[in-house]
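TOKENISED FOLD:
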Amino acid sequence: MHTQKEFILMLEDVSKTFDGFKAISNLNLYMDAGELRTIIGPNGAGKSTMLDLITGRTRPDKGKIEFGKDTDLTRLNEYQINRLGIGRKFQTPSVYIDHTVFENLLLSLPGTRSVWEALFSRVTSAQRERIQEILKIIRLEDKAEVKAGMGRNGVGKTTTLKCIVGLVKPVSGDIALVGKSLNGLRPDERARSGIGYVPQGRDIFPNLTVWENLLISLVVHGRKPNEQVDRVLQLFPVLKEMLKRKGGVLSGGQQQQLAIARALLTNPKVLILDEPTEGIQPNIIDQIGETLLKIRKTDGISILLVEQYLDFCLEVADRFYVMDRGAIVAEGPIANLDEGIVKKYLTV
């Protein structure tokens, strides 16, 4: 008996029988903190049953299972064991396929929230940073991309965006978000599914204040003002100084920042922007570009923008799509956007 030393995990004389079949027989296992232990054996040897016993999915017929210093795992349920600090990856991956990678990780963070609360309550800075740390560890960070749709006037760029958000019904084809078809969904249903849209011309409410414009975005999604508002005001600090000012008196650049902030409050999986630099002074364009790169990196939001300002696309985009006569005629990493493509499809 190994009783003179404290182990992070200890199984002593553990047995488990299923309908007369002894799956685990007088098993003894001792693990030190920080140790990597591998369990090897053929199918039916009891490996998964042992993990079920440790994580509380099933109870042993006899024996002792302890975690840390004198914590009896046989008296706890799966949730309690997990909260102690025992994480398990199952043989068959069990993920929420309709939710993003970020949302899957958010659901696993410590807390007592329900799925609904986890997905629709505020995400703290600490939680966001922890998720980013995990993404770096598993090498899934920065998978969100900024993609630029480019082309001359009248080639179908805005129509494509309107088809995505549901303002125009396509004659054929399928539009999907995270593997789920959006066909048949109204624009508001698509927005709730995770599409944020900043249209050309911005379309803010000119007779409402900046605060009221932001609040509408929360109300229509059934949410209350929370840390998300603080987050967008950090991204666009000029708005914080103008919360009581009517949207119609803002400059074009300030209205664009308000429109983007309003879209971000819907917690989009994909943010779509139509001509975000149109009619905006250069210093605001630079600020918007920096903000788009920031939300892609820290929030994991994919961004699709339609833009004719070539330098802006080169600065912020990861990939490009060039359209002509309603079709994509060239695409690739933004570094591959060469002079030949620009002259053939973009130069007026």
